[in-house]
Amino acid sequence: MSQSDTVLSALADGVLRLTLNRPDKLNAFNDEMHLALRAGFERAHADEHVRAVLLTGAGRGFSAGQDLGDRDPRKGGTPDLGHTIETFYNPLLRLIRSLEKPVVCAVNGVAAGAGANIAFACDITLAARSARFIQAFAKIGLVPDSGGTWSLPRLVGEARAKALALTAEPLDAETAASWGLIWRVVDDAALIDEASALAARLAAGPTRGLGLTKRAIQAAATNAFDEQLDLERDLQREAGRSADYAEGVTAFLEKRKPEFSGR
Ligand code: T3D
């Protein structure tokens, strides 16, 4: 399988769809897939035609996290997992969080280990009703990564975060939604259409304003209230200078639908 085959990439109507594509391994991450996914998110950063990203998986799973076939202890040696986190997972998570364009995730099946935490790092995550989320790390003696120890307690509180991480019990999609880990559960057959429609709607939106909104909400995790008010002032100043703000207000006054350019 060539590098590009491990992640299918397609741009249409401003939406860059990235599909993890190692279905026989439940889209577990090998180095090749890491590089291909990173290239996809780097494109999303650099290409002004990309105004939203839709991340999903091929086959019956979203992602089973790290490909454990590449970590077989029976082959000898002790891997430096800090190195692989630094080289592959952390740059990916930083690319997702720092992208000032909406990232929609459609979890089409099981999301385990890093696969689950990548889904939680996206901006709006939908899941198929049959999907489940597993902090599989505890089963193999590892620590949740891909931002899991940061996002889980923030999203569900310390008690649930610890129970999920320490027991590795699967969490069904309905419960994940009711706990606030994801946005919405969708019938399996409707997932990709609903996620695509959402991504298309976001891609037709005021990209600059949406990107600044993402920045502000993420900054709230570490800002004090006064710092956040100052940030809102600064970002509103920037948004107010955008062509999309002018178009939004003009369209309102002219009683028509706005046509946002993303600038
Ligand atoms: O290493 C580092 O760089 C550090 C970073 C670590 C990040 C991590 O993500 S660590 C966590 C790694 N992931 C796991 O521990 C999950 C392992 N997988 C499972 O526990 C189960 O497969 C699932 C619960 C996800 C799904 O179970 P089920 O019963 O639906 O499917 P299955 O039969 O177990 O899997 C189907 C196939 O996918 C199977 O292959 P086969 O037998 O049909 O040829 C299975 O081996 C393969 N597969 C599933 N997960 C992985 C995998 N192959 C390689 N790596 C996997 N993670």
Automatic annotation (TrEMBL):
What the entry lists under InterPro entries is as follows:
ClpP/crotonase-like_dom_sf (IPR029045), Enoyl-CoA_hydra/iso (IPR001753), Enoyl-CoA_hydra_C (IPR014748), PaaB1 (IPR011968)
The Swiss-Prot or TrEMBL record annotates one GO molecular function as:
catalytic activity
Say which domain of life the source belongs to.
Answer: Bacteria
* Pfam families recorded: ECH_1
Q: Which GO terms describe its biological process?
A: phenylacetate catabolic process
Per the record, the similarity remark reads: Belongs to the enoyl-CoA hydratase/isomerase family.
Protein's name in the database = Enoyl-CoA hydratase
